[in-house]
Amino acid sequence: MRVVIAEDAVLLREGLAGLLERFGHTVVASVGDAPGLLAAVAEHRPDAVVTDVRMPPRFTDEGLRAALELRARHPELAVLVLSQYVEQTYAAELLDSGAGAGVGYLLKDRIGDVREFVDALDRVAAGGTVVDPEVVRQLLRGRRDPLSRLTPREQEVLGLIAEGRSNASIAKELVVTEAAVAKHIANIFAKLDLPPAADGHRRVLAVLAYLRQE
User: Fold this and answer.
1) Is residue 162 domain-shared with residue 88, that is, in the same domain?
2) pLDDT by residue (tens digit) across 139-158?
3) How many domains does the chain have?
4) Do 11 and 107 fall within a single domain?
5) Which end of the chain, C or N, has fewer beta carbons within 10 A?
């Protein structure tokens, strides 16, 4: 896989490049700002982009807005946001771009294993959707606090749904039966006014679809 990295912190940028190279990917460019990201993608036409949200010159949402622009220009381009922050204004819009395929949003301080990160990038590059549950929680809290409708267990299940986990995987994680998981999911969809769907990827998209509701 050919990857462009956009990260203003030099040590992290170089560290990510070395990590991806170690796992067999080719980093065709690593840049430190949004204009550099746009230029690198235009020049190299990579398979995927890994970008931070806050970059020079204003350190607000430059990386995320650049990612949105890239998805509009190149709908097939996989984009994985890797940040310390959940940017409320554009995050849901990015996750919805390209019908939600080939996009992800992970929080740096919640990645506990390098293989976890590489696997997430591989899934996004293959057209999947990878979203940190905390990203979903923060975005949902910004919309009429819908999580207040859910029980603590249902919130936990929702977080696992956001990771794209199957019912069997959720049951194993929570040490409950698959029937119990199915009941929790039915309750979640009902409380969030979402239609149930069997496929894990579509279930993530269903959660993201809720973020677009007015």
Assistant:
1) no
2) 776 665 666 778 889 888 88
3) 2
4) yes
5) C
What is the secondary structure of 149-206 as a DSSP string?
GS-HHHHHHHHHHHTT--HHHHHHHHTS-HHHHHHHHHHHHHHTT----SSHHHHHHH
In order, the DSSP letters of the chain are: -EEEEE-S-HHHHHHHHHHHHHTT-EEEEEESSHHHHHHHHHHH--SEEEE-S--TTTTSSHHHHHHHHHHHH-TT-EEEEEESS--TTTHHHHHHGGGGTTEEEEEGGG---HHHHHHHHHHHHTT-EEE-HHHHHHHHHTTT-GGGGS-HHHHHHHHHHHTT--HHHHHHHHTS-HHHHHHHHHHHHHHTT----SSHHHHHHHHHHHHT--
Query: pLDDT tens digits for 61-79?
Result: 999 999 999 999 999 999 9
Q: Are residues 149 and 123 in the same domain?
A: no
CATH classification at residue 181: 1.10.10.10
Domain residues for 182? 138-211
At 142, list the tokens.
């910004």
Q: In this structure, are 115 and 18 located in the same domain?
A: yes
Query: Do 66 and 9 share a structural domain?
Result: yes
